Amino acid sequence: MAGRYTIDAATQTPRRLYEAENNLLKQYTKELEKLEQALRRQSAPNSDKNKPNENEEIPRKPSTPNKKGNQIIQIGPNGTKLTEKRYGKVNFSSYRSATRDLSYKIFGEKVLATHTLSGSRGPRAVSQNKPTKEQLKPASVEDIVHHVQSRFAVEQSQVLQVIRRACRNSALAQERKKKEAQCPKSLQLKVIFSSK
């Protein structure tokens, strides 16, 4: 009975072929996992993308007092500075929150609302005939990117995306405030949901 083998009733395929396929799949899966681990080690050798690099020294210049007596901290090579009090309020739990907080502390909400990273109009602004916005200070943007990358293992594009989102959110909030200011309170409607 050496030539006999069992056959799957539904597909008429010998079982040994299924077993061979399963063994190959397991082998390839193990090899893929090894390659993925090697890639992860190469791209972020010290940490996870969202966790601070605790082993690395945070490159920032020592603080110096300003005219009001507040300590000033330089966060990047281009000389962008924050007071120690404002820097202390930055949330460094993730690169997103750190980037967003640094953007708001350095530029302010009004500047973020009226500026963009590139200073050029996007396709939506062109189609709606909106004016061109000014460019954020490239040196300050570079300092934010530098500082966030020194604390987290992230790409420059990820940090820039968070700054873009901060600009967009500020612009939308400013538009909302303008619309609310233009509409008299007597005409503002409150939506009330009633349960039936």
Describe this entry's structure for a reader.
With 196 residues, this protein is mainly alpha-helical. It has a domain at 61-175: Arc Repressor Mutant, subunit A. It is built from seven helices and five strands; from the N terminus they run αβββαααβαβαα. It has helices at residues 15-43, 84-88, 95-107, 109-114, 123-127, 138-151, 156-182, and strands spanning 61-65, 71-74, 81-83, 115-116, 134-135. The chain has a three-stranded antiparallel sheet with strand order 1-2-3. A hairpin with a 5-residue loop joins β1 (61-65) and β2. α3 (95-107) runs antiparallel to α6, α3 (95-107) packs across α7 and α6 (138-151) crosses α7. The radius of gyration is 28 Å and the shape is elongated. The model is unreliable at 45-49 and 52-60 (pLDDT under 50).
Short description:
The chain is mainly alpha-helical and 196 residues long. The protein has seven helices and five strands.
CATH topology of the domain at 61-175: Arc Repressor Mutant, subunit A
Query: Can you tell me the CATH architecture of the domain at 61-175?
Result: Orthogonal Bundle
- Distance between the first and last residues' Cα: 75 Å
Mean pLDDT rating: 77
SSE string, helices as H and strands as E: HEEEHHHEHEHH
Q: Can you count the beta strands?
A: 5
Q: What is the alpha-carbon Rg in Å?
A: 28 Å
Low-confidence stretches: 45-49, 52-60
The largest β sheet comes out as:
3 strands, antiparallel
The proportion of residues in beta strands is: 5-15%
| Strand ordering within the main sheet | 1-2-3
Query: What is the structural class?
Result: mainly alpha
- In CATH, the homologous superfamily of the domain at 61-175 goes by the name BEN domain
The tally of helices reads: 7
Shape descriptor: elongated
The CATH first-level class of the domain at 61-175 comes to Mainly Alpha
Biased composition (Basic and acidic residues): 48-60
InterPro entries: BEN_domain
GO molecular function, one term: DNA binding
Protein name: BEN domain-containing protein
